[in-house]
C-alpha cells in the first residue's frame, strides 16, 4: 500500500517520524520548562519554541517541507505567504539549502518579523509586501507561483509542514515529563495543533486536547461547527500570528478527531498571559504565542491538580506593541475595574471619595476633566489583589451616596479622551508631577498640598510600571493671587510626590481649549 493510500492520521504519524531525520539539520530541540503560579492551579509545563532558531516553532514545518525539494524544484525556487514566523522558517531553510525564496507578507507585518526574515535568509530571500491581510498576501503569492513555476510552501495546509511542527510534540513525549492530562494548543490555520495533537494522542490517548483561538479569529471553531472550513467575515489582528480567516483543509480533517474542544480567549486575557510568562520565566511572548496559557489561566480553578502542556509558539513581537499590551493588562481580569463616580463639584470631595471608598485599593488610572459647575464624573481604574475587594466597591459607593457606572473597557477610557471645558475655569494652574508608586501617595498630596479654595479641574494619571507614576493635574482658584501663592510656595518635592518642569503658557491654553 502506498503511503498516500493510508488514512490521513496514519500518513501524518509516518511523516512526523521521517521529519525527525530532517529538521535537526536546521535547529536543535527546545526546552520544556515548569511555570510556577502563585496559589492553587494546575502543574504547567511550557514548551519554549521562543528559544528556537527563529524564535518561533514555524522553522520545523518550513524546513521539513523544503528539505524534500527535488533538484529541479530547488532550481525553480520557492514562494510563500506568511504573517511573519513561517516566513522566517522558509528564509532559514532557503539559506541553508541555497534555494531562492520569494516571501509575500501583509503590509502591516511588524518590522521585527520583516527584519528577521532578511537576517535568516540573507541573499536568498526577497520580501514582497502585498495587501493588508494574510489572505491578500496568499493571493499575491499564488499568482507568483502560477506565473513563475516556483514551489508554493504553505504555512499550514500541507502534510509535510504539519509533520515538521509535530516534532515539537515528539520532544515533549521524549522529555520524560509526561503524560499530561491536557494540552492547550493555539490555532491559526491549524497545522501545529493538528501535528502536535496527532502525536500526543498516539502516545497518551487519554490526553485532552484543547484548541485555543482568539475571540475575533476563531476559524477552526467555525469549521468544526460547520463540519467544513468556512471563511470568517472579519479577523482580529492583535494575535497576528494566528490571524487566519479560514482553517486549513488538511488540519481541519485531523483536528476533527484529535481536538476535544475549542476555547476562545480575549486580547486582554492574552495580555495577562504574556505578563504571567514574563513574571514566571522572564520570557516575552508574542500575543499568539501566549494564547494557550491564556486559556489555562482562564480555566485555572477547574484545572487544579492536573498537569497541562502549553506551547509558547513565538516571541517575534514588535517592540512598540509591548506598550499596548502593558496598558491593557488587567482590562479583562477579575482584579481590575473602571468606574466613573459622580461627586459634587466642590473642594474636598475628591479626597472624601478616596478616604471613604477607595482606601486600600490601587488606583492604576485616573481621568477627569471639569465639564460642569455642579457635578464631577472622575473615572478610576482600580486594581485589587483580591476580586472580593472590587466586588465590595459598588456597595461602598452606594452606602456613601455616590452614584457610579461601570466603564470597564469603554472606548473613551481606553483612548484617554478626557473632556475639559475651559470656559468653566477661572484661574487654573496645571502641574506636572511624579507620584511614587506606593499606597497613599495621591491621597497625601491632595490632603497636604491642595488646601483652601483650590478645586481639582483636571487629572490625567496612569501607572507605567516604574517606581513612579506620572500625572498632569489641573487646579482652579477663585483668584489669581491664590493661584500664584500656591505656585510660589509648593515644594519641588514632598511626601510621595515630585514636582516636574512647569507647564508653559501655550500648553495651558491648549488644555483649556483655547
Notable characteristics:
Rossmann fold; 514 residues; 6-stranded mixed beta sheet; Biosynthetic Threonine Deaminase, domain 3; alpha/beta; 3 domains
What does the largest sheet look like?
Answer: 9 strands, antiparallel
Beta-strand fraction estimate: 15-25%
User: In CATH terms, what is the architecture of the largest domain?
Assistant: 3-Layer(aba) Sandwich
CATH fold-type name of the largest domain: Rossmann fold
Tell me the count of domains: 3
Distance between the termini: 82 Å
CATH class of the largest domain: Alpha Beta
Secondary structure tally, helices: 19
Largest sheet, spatial ordering of strands: 16-11-15-13-18-19-17-21-20
Describe the oligomeric state of these chains in a short phrase.
Answer: single chain
The number of distinct β-strands equals 21
Structural class: alpha/beta
Q: Identify the overall geometry.
A: elongated
- Spatial extent as radius of gyration: 28 Å
Flag low-confidence runs. Answer: none
- Give the % helix: 25-40%
Averaging pLDDT over every residue, what do you get? 90
Pfam family, one: PALP
EC number: 4.3.1.19
Keywords: Amino-acid biosynthesis, Branched-chain amino acid biosynthesis, Isoleucine biosynthesis, Lyase, Pyridoxal phosphate
Pathway: Amino-acid biosynthesis; L-isoleucine biosynthesis; 2-oxobutanoate from L-threonine: step 1/1
Report on the architecture of this protein.
The chain is of the alpha/beta class. The chain folds into three domains: 3-56 and 161-328, 3-Layer(aba) Sandwich (Rossmann fold); 59-152, 3-Layer(aba) Sandwich (Rossmann fold); 336-511, Biosynthetic Threonine Deaminase, Domain 3 (Biosynthetic Threonine Deaminase, domain 3, 3-Layer(aba) Sandwich), CATH 3.40.1020. Helix content is 39%, strand content 21%. The chain contains 19 helices and 21 strands. The protein has helices at 8-23, 59-66, 71-76, 85-97, 111-121, 134-148, 159-174, 191-203, 219-226, 249-258, 267-281, 291-298, 319-328, 349-356, 387-399, 411-414, 441-449, 480-489, 505-511; strands spanning 32-35, 43-48, 78-81, 101-105, 125-129, 151-152, 182-186, 208-214, 261-265, 307-312, 336-341, 343-344, 362-369, 375-376, 379-383, 404-406, 427-436, 455-462, 468-477, 493-494, 497-499. The strands form four sheets. It has a nine-stranded antiparallel beta sheet. α5 links the parallel β4 (101-105) and β5. α11 packs across α12 (291-298). Keywords: Amino-acid biosynthesis, Branched-chain amino acid biosynthesis, Isoleucine biosynthesis, Lyase, Pyridoxal phosphate.
Amino acid at each position: 500500500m502506498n503511503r498516500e493510500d493510508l488514512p490521513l492520521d496514519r500518513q501524518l504519524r509516518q511523516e512526523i517520524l521521517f521529519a525527525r531525520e530532517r529538521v535537526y539539520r536546521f535547529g536543535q530541540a527546545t526546552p520544556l520548562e515548569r511555570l510556577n503560579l502563585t496559589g492553587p492551579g494546575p502543574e504547567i509545563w511550557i514548551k519554549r519554541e521562543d528559544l528556537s532558531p527563529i524564535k518561533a516553532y514555524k522553522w520545523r514545518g518550513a524546513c521539513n517541507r523544503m528539505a524534500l525539494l527535488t533538484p529541479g524544484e530547488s532550481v525553480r525556487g520557492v514562494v510563500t505567504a506568511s504573517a511573519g514566523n513561517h516566513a522566517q522558517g522558509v528564509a532559514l531553510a532557503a539559506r541553508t539549502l541555497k534555494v531562492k525564496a520569494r516571501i509575500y507578507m501583509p503590509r502591516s507585518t511588524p518590522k521585527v518579523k520583516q527584519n528577521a526574515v532578511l537576517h535568516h535568509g540573507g541573499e536568498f530571500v526577497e520580501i514582497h509586501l502585498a495587501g493588508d491581510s494574510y489572505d491578500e498576501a496568499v493571493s499575491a503569492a499564488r499568482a507568483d507561483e502560477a506565473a513563475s513555476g516556483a514551489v508554493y510552501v504553505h504555512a499550514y495546509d500541507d502534510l509535510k509542514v504539519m509533520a515538521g511542527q509535530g516534532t515539537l510534540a515528539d520532544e515533549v513525549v521524549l522529555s520524560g515529563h509526561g503524560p499530561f492530562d491536557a494540552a492547550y494548543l493555539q490555532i491559526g490555520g491549524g497545522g501545529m495543533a493538528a501535528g502536535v495533537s496527532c502525536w500526543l494522542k498516539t502516545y497518551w490517548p487519554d490526553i485532552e486536547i484543547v484548541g485555543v483561538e482568539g475571540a475575533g479569529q476563531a476559524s477552526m471553531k467555525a469549521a468544526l461547527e460547520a463540519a467544513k472550513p468556512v471563511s470568517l467575515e472579519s479577523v482580529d489582528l492583535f494575535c497576528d500570528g494566528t490571524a487566519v480567516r479560514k482553517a486549513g483543509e488538511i488540519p481541519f480533517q485531523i483536528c476533527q478527531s484529535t481536538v476535544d474542544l475549542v476555547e476562545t480567549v480575549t486580547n486582554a486575557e492574552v495580555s495577562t498571559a504574556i505578563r504571567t510568562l514574563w513574571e514566571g520565566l522572564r520570557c516575552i511572548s508574542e500575543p499568539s504565542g501566549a494564547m494557550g496559557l491564556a486559556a489555562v489561566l482562564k480555566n485555572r480553578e477547574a484545572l487544579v491538580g492536573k498537569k497541562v502542556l502549553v506551547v509558547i509558539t513565538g516571541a517575534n513581537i514588535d517592540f512598540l506593541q509591548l506598550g499596548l499590551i502593558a496598558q491593557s493588562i488587567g482590562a479583562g481580569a477579575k482584579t481590575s475595574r473602571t468606574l466613573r463616580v459622580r461627586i459634587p463639584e466642590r473642594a474636598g470631595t475628591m479626597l472624601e471619595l478616596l478616604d471613604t471608598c477607595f482606601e486600600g485599593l490601587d488606583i492604576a488610572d485616573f481621568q477627569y476633566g471639569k465639564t460642569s459647575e455642579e457635578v464631577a464624573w472622575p473615572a478610576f481604574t482600580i486594581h485589587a489583589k483580591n476580586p472580593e475587594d472590587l466586588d465590595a466597591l459598588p456597595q461602598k459607593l452606594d452606602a456613601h451616596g455616590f452614584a457610579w457606572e461601570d466603564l470597564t473597557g469603554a472606548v473613551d477610557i481606553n483612548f484617554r479622551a478626557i473632556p475639559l471645558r475651559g470656559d468653566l475655569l477661572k484661574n487654573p494652574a496645571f502641574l506636572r508631577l511624579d507620584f511614587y508608586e506606593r499606597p497613599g501617595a495621591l491621597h497625601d498630596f491632595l490632603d497636604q498640598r491642595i488646601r483652601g479654595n483650590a478645586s481639582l479641574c483636571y487629572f490625567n494619571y496612569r501607572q507605567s510600571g516604574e517606581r513612579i507614576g506620572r500625572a498632569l493635574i489641573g487646579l482652579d482658584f477663585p483668584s489669581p493671587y491664590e493661584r500664584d501663592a500656591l505656585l510660589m510656595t509648593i515644594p519641588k518635592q514632598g511626601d510621595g510626590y515630585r514636582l516636574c518642569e512647569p507647564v508653559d503658557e501655550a500648553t495651558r491654553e491648549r488644555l483649556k481649549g483655547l
